[in-house]
Amino acid sequence: MPENVPFWKVESIGNDFVLVNAEDVTKLAPKNVDGFLARLANLACERRFGIGSDGLLVVSKTSSGLHLRMFNPDGTEDFCGNGLRCAARHGFAQGWVSGQFSIDHLGQRVEAEVVDDVIVRTVLGAAQYSPEKVPVKGNAELFNTTVWSGMVDGQPLSLFGSALTTGSTHVIIKTATLPDDDSFRSISAAIENDPMFPERTSVIWVKMERPMVLAVRIWERGAGETFGCGTGSAAAAADYLRRTGQGGSVTVINPGGDLSISAKAWNEPLTVQGSATTIYQGFYPTRDLL
């Protein structure tokens, strides 16, 4: 008989997820776990016929802390900054972790700390611009330059910014005004799927509100527009610190809430601090998955 899988609906700065414990789902499809999780992401993340979310988090306990996998609504696996904080909050609530601990996530080990009932702190690796790391086609890094050129509504358009990775691939577009809905959706989708980004890319539109304070609008690969992005906020902050030659704490205003990103310099580890909460929990039927 099909089983109902326990799930938690969690969010960080409006970036929402369906979270499941790994042991509850992997036993249902031991011979094709990845395929099962991709299908679960497809169905559970759908906002009209599923639970609705920006992604699926799969969390388990380890000897040193937690292990996290994140799947976009299209079933592709990715690295997720807000997902890290949600996983930390969940592991803490389950009694799996306390104090400072590590989260193994897509080949990286991230240090984490549940600060209080609202705030979680994580430390990401330094931003990287090298083409093979981003990845982006070509031999030169894209920093503070023309980062994308294409046709929009039959007219040529060139955009200024950078391409970098903070665990996930991002194109940073510098702008004096955040784009309107139509421009944002059409241009962001075109950049995401441009062949110059062999693994696709998220697109972060960045407006400087004042020194050390940035406002962003976010298009995530595999998900579309989201209210928040942890790695995207870190990328925006690191790019700003590199352009200005500074270190320190940058406030990044996401549509769903603010993140504090701090680093001694742009090429140093990035400390990300922000909220993570559990909204509700329930049971998801697996009849369409098995």
What's the name of the CATH homologous superfamily of the largest domain? Answer: Diaminopimelate Epimerase, Chain A, domain 1
CATH class call of the largest domain: Alpha Beta
CATH architecture type of the largest domain: Roll
Span between termini = 9 Å
Strand content: 35-45%
Q: What is the averaged pLDDT score?
A: 96
Low-confidence stretches: none
Number of strands: 18
Number of domains: 2
Classify the helix fraction into a percent range. Answer: 10-25%
Largest sheet: number of strands, sense, barrel closure:
18 strands, mixed
Question: What structural class results from the helix and strand content?
Answer: alpha+beta
**Fold-level CATH name of the largest domain:** Diaminopimelate Epimerase, Chain A, domain 1
Oligomer: single chain
Gyration radius, to the nearest Å?
Answer: 19 Å
Cα shape: globular
The DSSP helix count reads: 5
Topology as a string of helices (H) and strands (E): EEHHEEEHEEEEEEHEEEHEEEE
